[in-house]
Fold:
Amino acid sequence: MVDVSGLFPDVLKNMQTEDLEQKKLVYLYLMNYAKTQPELVILAVNTFVRDAEDSNPLVRALAIRTMGCLRAEKIIDYLCDPLQKCLRDDDPYVRKTAALCVAKLYDLKPELVMDNGFLEQLREMVADANPMVSRQTIGFPCNLPKTFLQGCRKHDCCSIRHPFCISCRRIGRRSLHH
Structure:
């Protein structure tokens, strides 16, 4: 395997492309090589933030997913504002991707998740009208703080084994199992 980490500064220049396929490749490269060039990752933040507000939901989801996957300490604090917006996005794919990003952020810096109210937002998203969003939210790692279940009513919980509160409506159960 050839080490192309030395191309990091040159690849960063291609982030601002309008071509979605090229953008995907650049973001994939950044995910793979951010650990080798952590001081340069900060240069990508403005583009990520801008892409997280793009009119195309695929670009918004790609930006928030990539920021969550970089696992670079230097950009974690810049992730919170775009993540807040994406968790409330009109597009279900963006919301689903943002929920996954919260899980990744929780692994890195749980206090940031708690301080920004992301757990409360995920709790609300469990009842999302879109089953794709609900499934992703329910898939959140089981190492959540016990306080997550506070305030849940017994009839809202489908299973004691499950760390999330969800509606026990038959439709909800079916959509979670399919």
Remarks:
- The CA atoms of residues 87 and 121 lie 7 Å apart.
- The chain has one domain: 5-143.
